[in-house]
Please model this.
Amino acid sequence: MQLNFDRRVADSLPTSWVDRAPLALRPYLRLARYDRPIGFWLLALPCWMGLMLARIGDGIAGYDIWLAVLFGIGAVAMRGAGCTYNDIIDRDLDARVARTADRPLAAGTVSLKQAWAFLGGQALVGLIVLVQLPLIAILVGLASLLLVAAYPFMKRITWWPQAWLGLTFNWGVPVAYTAATGRIDPAMIVLYVACVFWTLGYDTIYAHQDSEDDALVGVKSTARLFGESSQYWVAGFYGTHAILVALAIWLSQASPWIVIPFTLYTAHLFNQVRRLDIEDGARCLALFKANRTTGLLLVATFATGALLTGLAI
Model:
């Protein structure tokens, strides 16, 4: 079996500050994906969503700034740790896929022992962040380790690894919500499920960059499962997501004025579906990255609801 490693894949092109970092640091920065910061955003945004949803009805407090900073640091540490762990497990597969063949473990620029040590350091930072939170949030956060540990194996055993990623990447919703409120509410659960569908959509788009190579090496994904029907499936995932977000807003009893930022958010979300071309890898990557803006718009939607708390309608 021969893969064409001369094929230029959009997500493997050297275009970030990491390529100008000291030579000894570059493999570790790439191992943690500092050259692809979109992952940090997609891990932090659900935390901020959960935090702002929790403040609808109570208003935003000064302590929330500290929580938001903690969640940002935690997202960077744990996304880096997750990517490092994923590369440790997938190092043989990565060497057989064009987009991932130059990853440090697959390319041999970092040893397995060094990778495990680097993983431990990042996990320690994440633990330091976690213990700053209330006990209930610490327990909720620790529960995510089971999801993280199992994720790299999902692409080998199910056509739906994107669903497992959704369960894992959006765990920040319950962590942040419980940190802010000390309880679990229906609105929080609904938002968490909504974000799982969001991830199903954007990661299906992302997976179309690899669908050809994935088929050759036997890696499963929703992109391969849906094939030419992917645009309809993404529309369905995003539609379900938007409906569930609206339900979470309704359950939180937010001001009706929240519909204005929510409308901007849904318009940006479904513009991805309109522009999707699964044969264009560069466009798939661009649409995937556009979810940073999509997520920020949703954070702004919930923040609007929190800021409007107590105002006359």
